[in-house]
Amino acid sequence: MLVTARNAARRLVGVLGLGLALLALASPAIAATLTVTITGVHSDRGDVYVALFATPDHFPDGDFALRRLKLKASTAPIVVSFDHLPPGTYALGCYHDEEKLGHFKTNWFGYPLDGYALSNGIRAVISRPTFAEAAFPVASPATRIALHVKY
Q1: How far apart are CA 57 and CA 93, in angstroms?
Q2: Helix extents (H) in 26-72
């Protein structure tokens, strides 16, 4: 009987130890909220498109963004939030589609014709902006970023 009680105690300690180890490894994922304030939109005509990127793949083409939003244009600051983001590195872009064409206008050289903004104030000068230039950290519980649209 003593041997059986000892084995049962060992099993119980082992199960409890395994349970505690699993609890330590299974800590809940911490989500973050990214709040973006957009200023500089020079008219309330059309829409403002906002794109959030989590990888450099196809940045800054909004068709490949992690999340995209279409908002009514406003000369007042536009505030939008992206909720439930895993903490990490992201980049943002937005543009003002005054004519409601549904796409970003460029000239035949590829230079922007619509007002736009990228995180970190990056502008297209000679070459296409990169994710690394526009990247910023998002931490839990909240991060705030400002974009200023320039034409």
Answers
A1: 14
A2: none
Q: What is the pLDDT of residues 118-142, one digit of tens each?
A: 999 999 888 889 999 999 999 989 9
The pairing of strands 136-138 and 32-39 is: unpaired
Provide the residue ranges of all domains of the chain, joining segments of one domain with +. Answer: 32-148
Q: Rounded to whole angstroms, how far apart are CA atoms 123 and 116?
A: 9
| pLDDT at res. 24 | 36
Whether the Cβ atoms of residue 114 and residue 103 lie closer than 8 Å to each other = no
What pTM did the predictor assign? 0.78
Q: How far is CA 48 from the centre of its chain?
A: 17
**141 φ/ψ angles, rounded to the nearest 5 degrees:** -90, -20
Contact status, residue 78 vs residue 120, Cβ threshold 8 Å: no
Per the listing, tokens 């939008």 go with 80
The encoded tokens of residue 35 equal: 């709040």
CA 62 from centroid of its chain's CA atoms: 12
> Measured between alpha carbons, how far is residue 73 from residues 34, 38, 55, 107, 131 in Å?
20, 10, 27, 22, 25
Question: Cα(119)–Cα(97) distance, rounded to whole angstroms?
Answer: 18
- Please name the residues in contact with 146: beta carbons below 8 A apart, sequence gap of 6 or more: 36, 37, 38, 39
Peptide bond into 86 cis (omega under 30): no
